[in-house]
Amino acid sequence: MALPLTIQQSSPAESATPELIWSKCLRIIEPEISTLSYKTWFQPVVPIKLNGDQLTVQVPSQFFYDWLEEHYATLIGNTVKAVLGDSAKLFYSVASESVVPEPQTETVTPLPEQAQTHLPFAPHVAMRTENLLAVPTNLNPRYTFENFIKGDSNQLARAAAMAVGNNPGGTSFNPLVIYGGTGLGKTHLMHALGNYAISVGKAKRAVYISSEKFTVDFIESVQSDRVSEFSNFYRSMDLLIVDDIQFFAGKEKTQDNFFHTFNALYQHGKQIVLSSDVPPKELKGLDDRLISRFQCGLTADIQPPDLETRIAILQKKSQENGLELSSDVIDFIAANVKNNIRELEGVLISMLARASLESRELTIDLAKDVLRIVVHELRSPISIEQIQTTVAEFFDLPVDQLRAKTRRQEVVIARQTAMFLAKELTNSSLKTIGLHFGGRDHSTVIHACQAVEEHASTNEDFRRQLETLRKRVSLR
Ligand code: ADP
Ligand code: MG
């Protein structure tokens, strides 16, 4: 990598800020890569800390970090050294990961050296997973009410969170319990509430914690004989936010400790905010006295977003990422990714990744390719029955013909095509596939696969049909 020779090696002066240093780095990096790659992978990086010649930047996700590491490690490593000197070190803080750290990294602050053994990186570049921006509260500043899109599906939860954020402990919504499926915005909303309460000065002491981390820390406090320190910490809060309380299930001692913490806070008019994947009364493995406490405030649900909300979210997120998506691409994604906002984000990020890696335009075709992979992976596996239905529809045949004995030419082609797709798109064995097609044996399936491959290799039309079928099956 040829770096411009005119770059001055500024010694880390007292007045240097992380922003200043990072903007110098960006000036070196920008001309080296495409505009799209620059926008995608460098603009979202936030410089957060400078300690001598050690710079810490925050990236939005683990995926993002992996991508940077794989594609730009050398460029970034050299650039940071060019700006801060040869012994410079760069640390990464992963925003989303830091919120709910992996259990094995929970108890100790990972040292750069430790991290390196898991994540080989260029020399002088290492990684940290704790959120350096928000050490005392664990609140992630990226999650705000402003960037939380309002929709029918989240209206109650959002309104309740705003009311509580504006007056923690002072409403009848105590505790506030937000429940709903995964990837629907519970964690986002809780952070937004905490950030808001702090920013308007309504909570001096606030902390966000996942129930898993609470559990791990509690157990550790027992082992190190520091339970009262642990308890006092949480009982001194104005606002305690505990995410995913379903994971308290079966942890009786932790529940007991949490019960007393809950009571102490509640009695002093302090606010408790909880989230769960089901309504409190359906929580399994939790003590009844806890469940009844959870029900004495407000329980608000978040439902999967409707189409308008999905479109609004895609518009907002693509804007945030500097992505210009046409409305038909947005409509297409919104129509096909229905259940989960995290999945919507996944599609956007993958589109960015593909577009910048393969120099492709952000078209519907790219969206389809990405959906096939992203959604396919996230959805339940494709079944042989699904394939049969899709193929029969396509060839305009009754589906039972595929399982029947008939040897009519058009049925044979459809049947062989369905077998071929079953082999390609499911994990079923040849024997299982044969059984689904009227009890044929595995050699018939092998023969079918060979016939289809041969036909596709000589017949362009058939090859296209096969491609269409693959997509239809995957998008079903
Ligand atoms: P949950 O905790 O319910 O599993 P998260 O809060 O982690 O879901 O949300 C998943 C992702 O979707 C996050 O990146 C979050 O910012 C985003 N998200 C969820 N709901 C919304 C919304 N209404 N507006 C904007 N982004 C949202
Ligand atoms: Mg969550």
Structure description:
- It is a single chain.
- With 476 residues, the chain is an alpha/beta fold.
- It folds into four domains: 3-94, 2-Layer Sandwich (GMP Synthetase, Chain A, domain 3); 110-302, P-loop containing nucleotide triphosphate hydrolases (Rossmann fold); 307-374, Helicase, Ruva Protein, domain 3 (Orthogonal Bundle), CATH 1.10.8; 384-475, Orthogonal Bundle (Chromosomal Replication Initiator Protein Dnaa, Chain: A).
- 53% of the residues lie in helices and 10% in strands.
- It has 20 helices and nine strands.
- The chain has helices spanning 18-29, 35-41, 62-84, 95-99, 112-118, 155-166, 186-199, 211-223, 227-235, 252-267, 288-294, 307-320, 327-336, 341-358, 364-378, 384-394, 409-425, 430-436, 442-458, 460-475; strands at 46-51, 54-59, 89-94, 125-128, 176-180, 206-210, 239-243, 271-276, 298-302.
- The strands form two sheets. Strands 6-7-8-5-9 form a five-stranded parallel β-sheet, sandwiched between helices. A four-stranded mixed β-sheet has the order 1-2-3-4.
- Strand 1 and strand 2 (54-59) form a beta hairpin.
- Helix 13 runs parallel beside helix 15, helix 18 packs across helix 19 (442-458) and helix 19 (442-458) packs across helix 20 (460-475).
- The chain is globular.
- The chain starts with 17 loop residues before the first helix and ends with a helix.
- Bound molecules: adenosine-5'-diphosphate and magnesium ion.
- Residues 186-187, 243 line the site of magnesium ion (MG).
